[in-house]
Amino acid sequence: MTRPFISGIPALDAYLSDGFEKVPGMSSRFSATICGHLMRRQTEMGIRGSVAEIGAFEGRFLIAMGHALAAGEHAYGFDVFTWPDDRVLDRFVANAERHGLDRSRYTPRPFDSGKLTVDEFAGLTGRGPLRFIHIDGDHSPEPLTHDLELAHARLHPQGLICLDDMLHPGYPFLVVTVHAYLTAHPEMVLMCVIDREDIVAAPKFLICRRDAVALYETDLMASFPDQHFVLGGDAMGHHCVVLTQHPRLAEV
């Protein structure tokens, strides 16, 4: 029997069902469902902290994260909000209101993350640890390296960094930057690959501390058996979870 593919958070699942794809953006509903599930699991395990997105655009993914917040937590959305025009921030706020995210639960941060120090980033995100950080900013090596260092410095010890557009045909070597980050920080591992929906809804990587992997990987395989690619992935010596919409093995 096929299990329902949901996050388990009613407000988030309602948004994913009717709203998510009405907000411009390129994150997939498939990945947002899995990330929402992970945030729910964090809450159930007592992992507390706010969330941040670098590259919030018009709010598609940040609204999803906002619906997964626990009491007292906050969502921070970073973007220059000037592309493709100077009304992006207005549309971001309107989308959040339209899809039920209360204004008290989130703060747009109109900053170029590439120009922020770790201390400035901390000050703009409440100075507490962040339990979930989504990075979807400038897709070139130097900016991604900087965004990863910001996230690394502020991540909750059991938190998750989610990287968008990994293995995207438009950015085929962006993963080299992630490999360099993981090499420089051997305490961090690629815990899960969330496969693409299509070329405009590309894969995501979920990264966490090595000692936090057990909090998530078995639960993901058990919670999403119909999406689990059982061979997993060879992630620099770590056998990571792979979730895809249509898992199958080649006939040989």
Notes on the structure:
There is one protein chain. This protein is of the alpha/beta class and 252 residues long. The protein has one domain (10-243): Rossmann fold (3-Layer(aba) Sandwich). The protein contains eight helices and nine strands. The protein has helices at 10-17, 29-44, 60-67, 88-98, 118-124, 141-154, 174-184, 217-223, and strands at 50-54, 75-78, 106-109, 130-135, 155-163, 188-194, 204-209, 233-235, 238-243. The chain has a nine-stranded mixed sheet with strand order 3-2-1-4-5-7-6-9-8, with helices on both faces. Strand 1 (50-54), helix 3 and strand 2 form a beta-alpha-beta unit. It is globular. The mean pLDDT is 97.
Alpha-carbon Rg, integer: 17 Å
Architecture (CATH level 2) name: 3-Layer(aba) Sandwich
- Overall structural class, as computed from helix and strand content, comes to alpha/beta
SSE pattern: HHEHEHEHEHEHEEHEE
CATH class: Alpha Beta
Strand proportion: 15-25%
Number of strands: 9
Number of domains: 1
* CATH fold node name: Rossmann fold
Percentage of helical residues?
Answer: 25-40%
User: Which sheet architecture does the biggest sheet show?
Assistant: 9 strands, mixed
Topology:
Layout: H1 10-17, H2 29-44, E1 50-54, H3 60-67, E2 75-78, H4 88-98, E3 106-109, H5 118-124, E4 130-135, H6 141-154, E5 155-163, H7 174-184, E6 188-194, E7 204-209, H8 217-223, E8 233-235, E9 238-243
Parallel strand pairs: 1-2, 1-4, 2-3, 4-5, 6-9
Antiparallel strand pairs: 5-7, 6-7, 8-9
Helix pairs in contact: 1-3, 2-3, 6-7
